[in-house]
Amino acid sequence: MSFGYSFKRLYRKALGVEPRRLLHSGWFDCEYYASQLMAERRRLSPRALAHHYLREGGFQGLDPCADFDSDWYLATYADVAASGTNPLLHFVAHGAAEGRLPRHGAVPTKPLAISPTQHRVQQLWGGFAHLALAELAQAPKDFRACYARAGWLYARGDYAAALQLLEPFTIIGEAHAVSLAKCFIRLRRWDELQSLVEEKNLRAQVKRSRALLGVSAARNSQRLEHLNQLMASHGLSGWSLADASEPLRLTNLAAGPCQGVTNGPLVSVIMPVYNNAATLPAAARSVLEQTWQNLELIIVDDGSTDASAAKAREIVQQDSRVRFLTQANSGAYAARNRAMEQAHGEWVTVHDGDDISHPQKLERQLEPVLTEPGRVASISSWVRVDESVCPIGPWGLGEAMTEANLSSLLIKRKALATTGMWDEVNAAADTEFLWRLEHHYGHRAIIHVHLAVPLALALTSADSLTQAKATHAQTVLFGARRLYREAARWWHRHSQFKPVLNQPRPFPCPLGLLRDYHSPDVVVAADFSQFDAPFAMQLEALTQSYRGKTLCFFHWPDFHQWSSAPIADGVFRLCQQHGIHWAHSRLTLNAQILVLMDESLWEYPLTESVHLPALVQVITADGRDCQAAESIRNYFQCGGVEYAGAARAE
């Protein structure tokens, strides 16, 4: 592996390739952009205008065209802002293919032109991994192809194989350097991590993540010192050990010396817990030791089967600011909603039962919302760590080490009357709620404080990163979370961007995100990004043909089309009218009938499908048996290509 780095090469790239890429993207309107500049700069050449936007304008709120909002893009996608990447450059290179939006209220846009490698990467994360991986493997010297394969392997926990693909290449960018570091962390290869972090030629490459990577590389006895140095560099106090006789671990962290804030509005901190007995005392301590002292902590036990309730009662006895509620197991969002209804604070926020907050977290999040007019909420960042407080970072390979901590959203309580509460699903409701808040108040009403500094530490275990879960964070690219987001966006658009969540839910939901559901009788598989009049008639006819039976839809993109194309609005409308939910990969249902709307889809099966072990009949839209009915039935009974292969091997 080479740590070599050519500044001249990257400088030429910045001056040449990137401006050309923007000018040819279809998203850079020179006349529009020039109109936002001072008079003396409006006559710059197109290349100079693009270079100005790349270097300055994109970070100053200037827009490259009427359909792209630079400020909104950075505010909405914290990972992009944390990486320091120009917003339009990110959108053109990655965002459009990932289904990100160019502005508030837009719909995902098909990339105008992408390379064959980019197309394979899109298919890799868009449901066709087995096909894309085979194609990408044909280019062993193409860094982009190897990097994509490494990202897939890393997300599935094969860190050694991911590293093997990355090591032969000279490091030329931050994403590459951070990716190597994350592999070293997972493999506990501390000496190589230390060498990478200390390499002088790479300091500019990892400048945003270097401090946290230094914390990871530090020996256990020195890790707290490195972490506190990072905090001090941003004007923050440090942590200490709750018990100096015990080693550093997440549950042994306590607030270090810092000045308290006694004046200010009451803040209600909601802490849902489910089987968090081991971490609850430390999590609660990190709240009660906040420098912002005018707070109440409401712990809600969500039907725990361990000693969480007993631990909570002990905490209540120790501090009069703590209240304790219990409920039958209903999920974290239901626990939040119940506690919010009983909160007394002018401001409210949420704190998970296994997270540890920095002692100044509330103080720093409150500062801008109390002093800047128009602010209704603030959010901060966190980093995922192991029990020894070693920063690990998010599941994605090339991302920054820190992430937006969506559960840290601190909001003016009266705003909940405008937006409604959280959707009581199993996962993914934080993002939908944040979008809803933004629709009502605008993205500038929500501020992200200390973007690159973690004000909370989130415990990450091997179990929490498993890729087998139907609702894992990876499914935001294809699967349950993506379907949920698209359905929510459909509702937001068709409520004139003033959505208020009441019961029942006003948009169809993936079944894997529901607390309770009955397995449908019939699964309808199709490419639901297409919705013309004949297709609409076919779907309406199906709902009539199977009256008395429950249907659900399974999205199977056409391999030859844009695999990231969103579900058509008309499909969501039909689902909502007929009470149809969505099936998705890694979900097991007992349906015995599968309707395949287009038999040609079988030519390119998805890597993972909904799992239908009881499937009996595979038919077309007009009721005929599919030509490949037996093969298709076996495929769905196994849950996809990968699992069908495993079943044959056994």
TrEMBL record:
InterPro entries in the cross-refs: Glyco_trans_2-like, Glycosyltransf_2, Nucleotide-diphossugar_trans
Membrane-spanning parts: none
Family matches, as CDD domains: Glyco_tranf_GTA_type
Domain annotation Glycosyltransferase 2-like: ranges: 268-377
Recorded superkingdom: Bacteria
Signal peptide: none
Protein name in UniProt: Glycosyltransferase family 2 protein
